[in-house]
Amino acid sequence: MDIFGVFRISASALEAQRARMNVIASNMANAQSTRTQEGGPYRRKDVLFSAVPVGQGDKGSEGVQVTEIVEDPTPPTMVYDPGHPDADKDGNVAMPNVKVIEEMANMMLATRAYEANVAAFNISKGMLMKTLEIGR
Amino acid sequence: MDKSFELLERLIYATNIRHRVLSSNIANSDTPNYKARDVDFNSFLAGEQARLTVTDPRHIPAGGSGMAGADIISAPGQAWGDGNNVELDMEVAKMTENGLLNQAGVRLLSIKIGTYKNALRR
Fold first, then answer.
1. Closest by Cβ to A64, choosing from B16, B21, B28
2. CB-based contact (8 Å) between A132 and chain B?
3. Cα separation of A12 and B27, whole Å?
4. What is the pTM assigned to this prediction?
5. CA-CA distance, B31 to B43, in Å (whole number)?
6. How confident is the model at residue B10 (pLDDT cuts 50, 70, 90)?
7. Minimum distance, in Å, between the CA of residue B81 and any CA atom of chain A
8. Residue B1 or B88, more confident
């Protein structure tokens, strides 16, 4: 059994949750962006996680990785604002499909998951340190 | 020699495996379609020999060199919309409990070694 595999499991989760936080932060930052390089308003992005075996493929040991960053397919929110430079001829502006409340909730989930993994990492460390003291 | 060395070795080994399985559950608490797993300690505790079932051909059977595999089972839990049934708080609670069990094993083993050291010193 690979002793350090457990650290890689927790570390992969910390990395994945941080990637999720980055995506959430960019969604919130661009909640009002009506222009993007691809044209049109900003589209909300989300991360897709998948389980990956860690180490020599011991049964039951799986880390996590971000497989893909996907765009939310829901149509942009139309807001009536004739004074806006990006308004169409009817005075409607296509605003990003980002819901700030939803992003806040997601951010809290990501934070909790991150914290749980930090706790798991610390427990692993404590166990290993105690094991090293056998026979002292 | 003393049977309890072997027993404690197995206890520490089994708690290490369980810790790793629980770490995987926590790491995958947001992975779609991931199903929570656990280690079956009943097989570990059953019988005088405290023998563990061999679930993988690579595992060395209990009673030989003392190393044993542990049964990895799927943990119960209601799956959410994304097919994931990990309950984060439960997993952290299980992990704390398992960590204490591991520490108990380590402490007892140290005491055991200490007694032998003491005996040899006289």
1. B28
2. no
3. 8
4. 0.81
5. 29
6. confident
7. 15
8. B88
Joined tokens for residue B21: 């399985």
Q: Which two tokens stand for residue A10?
A: 């927790």
What is the number of other CB atoms lying within 10 angstroms of the CB of residue A83? 7
For A58-101, write each residue's pLDDT tens digit: 777 899 999 999 999 999 999 999 999 999 999 999 999 999 99
**Among all chains, which residue has been given the structure tokens 């010193």?**
B121
Choose among B45, B50, B46: nearest CA to B7.
B50
Interchain CB contacts (distance < 8 Å): A and B: 109
B96–A133 CB contact, under 8 Å: no
Which residue in the block uniquely carries the two structure tokens 């909730």? A105
- Dihedral angle over CA of B71, A60, B61, B56, nearest 10: 100
Residue of B nearest to A106 (CA): B30
Distance CA(B15)–CA(B39), nearest Å, equals 9
Burial code of A40-61, b = ≥16 C-beta within 10 A, e = fewer?
Answer: ebbbbbebebbbeebbeebbbb
* Chosen from A54, A56, A64 to mutate, greatest number of chain B CBs within 10 A: A64
Q: Which amino acid is at B96?
A: T
Q: What is the pLDDT of residue B48?
A: 41
Q: What is the ipTM of this complex?
A: 0.84
> Tokens representing B14?
């089994």
Q: For chain B, say whether A129 makes contact (Cβ under 8 Å).
A: no
What are the angstrom distances between the C-alpha of A85 and each of A43, B23, B27? 19, 51, 45
Express each pLDDT in B47-65 by its tens digit. 445 445 566 767 655 544 3
Q: Which residue of B has its CA nearest to A1?
A: B17
Percent of chain A with pLDDT over 90: 82
